Amino acid sequence: MMTATKVKERSLLGIKELDGSEIHQLLERTAYWDQQSEKLTPVLRSHFVANMFFENSTRTRFSFEMAEKRLGVQVLNFTAAASSVEKGESIYDTVRTLESMGIDAGVVRLKPSGVLQQLAEKVGIPLINAGDGNNEHPTQALLDLYTMRQHFGELKGLKVSIIGDILHSRVARSNLWALTKLGASVQFCAPANMQAPELAAFAPYVSMEEALKADVVMMLRVQLERHASGIILSAEEYRRDYGLTEERAARLNPASIIMHPAPVNRNVEIDDAVVESSQSRIFPQMANGVPVRMAVMERALQ
Question: What are residue 19's DSSP bridge partners?
């Protein structure tokens, strides 16, 4: 059985807790797995992993499952909507139940922030954060870094603009911590009611015009479900003021790249033609999620 220290070392609860060398090592292992021509390399075939998604997901869940199966992992998929959580069982009891059955690690996605850290202190298996509230999404940040590294060669000195709903974005937070640890500079652009004031000490808020001058322009998903609360007046107004329209994209430096964590609201935060443009790296980002998660799974189980 793993010691508490070993479990902590192999868990990935957030980017904020990693140092630059640990991030670099994960990116190097990502490159290794990305270069393998064989789809199936069953080095982890004797391990069982549960994907525990207490919040809906498509890309992240399938990407983790693809990564696990390429490594030969025995995968158990768990969704809250079809589980005893619907009957009132706590998240903690659910995780402890699966641990008791013999899983070797858990991939966990949660709506509330902070719960994952509490779980990690109480269980004896490595946990991997697949997104928790507006706290962190570490594997998304890693695949974003890897995508940037593929294009630019290195991250040090890059200027990255993250545009959109910073307040509710775990992607923005994980990218902020990751990029700054590796020597890139980050700036935010957001409507006043979508800014996270506590992050201003780490990255400035700039105008849309200034944000477009960066090496990387990363658009965030407009959470249209927030219309009801009045945070967004309308999709049309958001696109007019903060969308990466074709006209704005034409003003980017030709060497710049466009990114988006997906799912994409086409013609809201980013125009349809821009998603498919030569500067867009949106689909390569998605592809890079698999080798990144292979590297993270390898770290958790070996």
Answer: none
